[in-house]
Amino acid sequence: MTHRTLTHRAPILAAAGLTGALLLTGCQDETRLTQLDQSGVSNEEIVGEEIILSNDVEGIYGDEFLTMGDEQTVVFVTDMPADLRPGDEVEATGTVAAGDLFSDPGDRERLYQLTDEGNANYLVNRESELYLTEATVTVVE
Predict the structure, then answer these.
(1) Of these four, 38, 96, 114, 140, which has the most CB atoms within 10 Å of its CB?
(2) pTM listed for this prediction
(3) What Cα–Cα distance (Å) separates residue 88 from each residue in 9, 15, 31, 59, 119?
(4) How far is CA 24 from CA 9, 31, 53, 54, 110, in A?
């Protein structure tokens, strides 16, 4: 299983020939990515696809990643907007990936440096999940 590390920001290789972007908007509760994950759609059908998620920012972790929606969908960001704050409504355009994000000890250690223990434990103890990588984030005004 390939996962994106926090320290090296290694890109996830997408399958060749993927075209277009899916616009997936969420309510302020859960992101569309979470809805797809829970719907029974095979992860293989959406991993590697470029999508746009719209939702509120829940947490910001340095310049590396943010979380969106109540379930805290993880979005690895290529260039974190400087004025971004929790509660801001954003659109994140990125590539869908799947995996256990914080299984690597170095990634877990970095996460504990970026947030409090309770939030870090919540993110670490989740199972393999869908997330966005190499995302561009814009604040919706």
Answers:
(1) 96
(2) 0.76
(3) 24, 32, 14, 10, 19
(4) 24, 8, 5, 7, 30
